[in-house]
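Field guide to reading this record: the first block holds the primary sequence, the second block holds the structure written as discrete tokens, and the final block holds curator observations. Each block starts with its own label. This record concerns HAD family hydrolase, catalogued under organism Streptomyces eurythermus.

BLOCK 1 — SEQUENCE
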Amino acid sequence: MGTHKSAHIVWDWNGTLFHDNDAIIGATNAAFAELGLAPITLEQYRSLYCVPVPKFYERLLGRLPSDAEWELMDATFHRYYTEHRVRCGLTEGAEELLAGWRSDGHSQSLLSMYEHEELVPVVRGFGIEPHFVRIDGRTGPSGGSKAEHMVRHLKALVGVAEPERTVVIGDAADDAVAARHVGARAVLYTGGSHSRASLEGAGVPVVDSLAEAVAEARRTAA
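BLOCK 2 — STRUCTURE
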């Protein structure tokens, strides 16, 4: 597609650009401990994780958590994650890929289900904020799907990105659901929260590196 300026990537943050698996697993196990659940490994997490998040907990509890249990686990998760995310960094090659896509004349934005007020300072701290035309984190309750957030995100990008030339790059099947919801394409990366087997069920390209994801975005947005 050369340097067609209308090609656009919507990046996911956690598990995609931000390699925070250790913090995520630690926070998940801290939340589990509140209900007396045994800790899980990264491999177990990847095979079981799903959105909405209470359904993920149902897979381990054998039932949906009560409202009080959900609030306790959610608060514990975010408290632990905030303490331990400082040890995490960008995924290998992420900064170079962001700079390369931008220098080729394409646009990109960031949409995360991480709370907006927490997200922006973290992104800014890595010095990559200028690569994005827009950064949106979650507003409202946690635990839901990204689809409606994607609708609002793309509406805010009118004149920048057309859905049919937009590619969502993320690490969760929900990223593909959100992309499909707005008429965009998706590429899923295996380095984050989902196993390759679960990602392949989403019916979109699945890759093992962000470099492959960007290459696929170039091809599919052509």
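BLOCK 3 — OBSERVATIONS
The mean pLDDT is 92.
The two ends are 5 Å apart (CA to CA).
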